[in-house]
Amino acid sequence: MAFGLYGLTQAVLQIPVGYLSDRVGRKPVVALGLIIFGSGSIIAAVTDNIYILILGRFLQGGGAIASTCFAWVSDLTHESKRNMAMAFMGIAVGGSVVLGMILGPLIGGRMGVAFLFCMGAVFSLAGLYSTVWHMKEAPRAQSAAAGFGASPLGIIKEFSNYGLTSLNIAGFTVNVCMISTFFLVPLRLSKDFEMSQLWQVYVPLAVLGAAAMMICSSRADRAGSKKVITGSLMALAVAFMILFAAPGVKHTLAGFALFFAAFSILEAVLPAAVTKMADPENRGAIIGMFNLSQFMGTFVGGLLAGWLADVSESSVFLILAVGSIAAAARIHRAPKVG
Questions:
Q1: What is the DSSP letter of 279?
Q2: Is residue 338 part of a domain?
Q3: Is 52 exposed, middle or buried (0-12, 13-18, 19+ CB in 10 A)?
Q4: What is the tally of structural domains in the chain?
Q5: Can you give the pTM of this predicted structure?
Q6: Confidence band (pLDDT; 50, 70, 90) for 173?
Q7: Is residue 61 part of a domain?
Q8: Residue 261: predicted pLDDT
């Protein structure tokens, strides 16, 4: 419960928090979310009671501002540059994931887990200061705060859009693949690398992913997102087939590198495509639906990998390959994506 409640709370609150940001503005919602997250971090840091820790994790997940932050970036960027803007967001998010995987065990091992929660509180305060004193809202977001925009029924109609639904399915699939891969591949690599040596794998892959993200985001801005998304999903399928067919260390590293590049591209291009298709007055809620799909994918992917890891690790990669192909086919059939 303490480990998983954060993701579940994030998933449940993405749409209502995004919708709220469409109505009252991005800045107050982001500021409140950071305060809630910081409060949860402090509670988790000072307790040794499991139930209070669960409460702290619940509050951390209550700071569900991912959809609002992506909507805010979208508000401030022209459509022709949005994929590149999302690429920088993706680098920040993806970079933090890699740093967390490298530094978390090192810092937690030396300073204790409570210190990691304290770091979360400090970062939330830094983000709160930046949000309140240095960030500005676009006129569109301010007009939305004045009460303009569609009704909740109008938002539901947007969710039924085939292109948006296809992007949500792709977001779900990508996160199933992400959490499953980051669960299984390090277990394989631990047979040939010490856990303290895995940074030697992650850092070059992070650089590769960032480069692929920037190149393909620029291409998506120029020529559209559909081919980039479809190609990246197919690249995921190829990576999983490599991981399925050959468990040796060289093939594992090759498949992991291809996965990392394709995943990095999709982390930037998918949300950018969603923002382009969403009604500007309801962008926060629409991105909230996309983020809900992603967080549910994280939950399902962890469940899938944990369930099948001891039974048949390779079967997970085969399932992920089939899922990636199905998502690519759905995107290919969509009349418009991004």
A1: -
A2: no
A3: middle
A4: 1
A5: 0.76
A6: very high
A7: yes
A8: 92
